[in-house]
């Protein structure tokens, strides 16, 4: 007795691909900028024995932006890091409660980052702080933190609203 299945009759189907989110596109742009800055630094160092040490300041700021964009993307696709060992052993009503608790705690955390980050950026603007290497206004770097934290909170809420109860 053979258990071979007949070949599929139609054209092969590709798995459904979801369109890229705005966060993914921006993350790609930020990663490309980091690569270009780093490559430029390596080429200049190799050819001239000098370094664009100040570009490290830009790279760090871009890495912070990339972290927030990555967090937003993870929440958009419900792929954020979880520890589910104990939660999976709970009955469904308690599991839903734990899920809501995680949502509230995460949204509150990013909300606090947005609140205090906004105050930090405002203080840096008000006192005229400049970055150590390039001498740029420090708030240019810091202002992204509260803005992107709000994007993460918005993404959390939208993802939560899409879920079935």
Could you explain how this protein is built, in words?
The protein is mostly helical and 165 residues long. It has one domain (22-162). It contains five helices and no strands. It has helices at residues 22-48, 55-76, 92-127, 139-142, 144-162. Helix 1 (22-48) packs antiparallel against helix 2 and helix 3 (92-127) runs antiparallel to helix 5 (144-162). The longest helix has 36 residues, at 92-127. It is globular, with a radius of gyration of 23 Å. The mean pLDDT is 87.
In summary, what is this structure?
This protein has helices at 22-48, 55-76, 92-127, 139-142, 144-162. The chain is mostly helical and 165 residues long. The chain starts with 21 loop residues before the first helix and ends with a helix.
Descriptive key words:
165 residues, mainly alpha
Number of domains: 1
How far is the N terminus from the C terminus?
47 Å
Q: Which strand-content bin applies to the residues?
A: under 5%
Q: pLDDT under 50 segments (min length 5)?
A: none
Q: What is the strand tally?
A: 0
Task: Tally the helices.
Answer: 5
Report the average pLDDT across residues.
87
Specify the structural class: mainly alpha
- What portion of residues is helical? 55-70%
Overall 3D shape: globular
Describe the main β-sheet briefly.
Answer: none
SSE succession: HHHHH
Q: Kindly provide the radius of gyration, computed on alpha-carbon positions and rounded to a whole number of angstroms.
A: 23 Å
Question: Layout of SSEs?
Answer:
Layout (H helix, E strand, L loop, with lengths): L21 H27 L6 H22 L15 H36 L11 H4 L1 H19 L3
Helix pairs in contact: 1-2, 2-5, 3-5
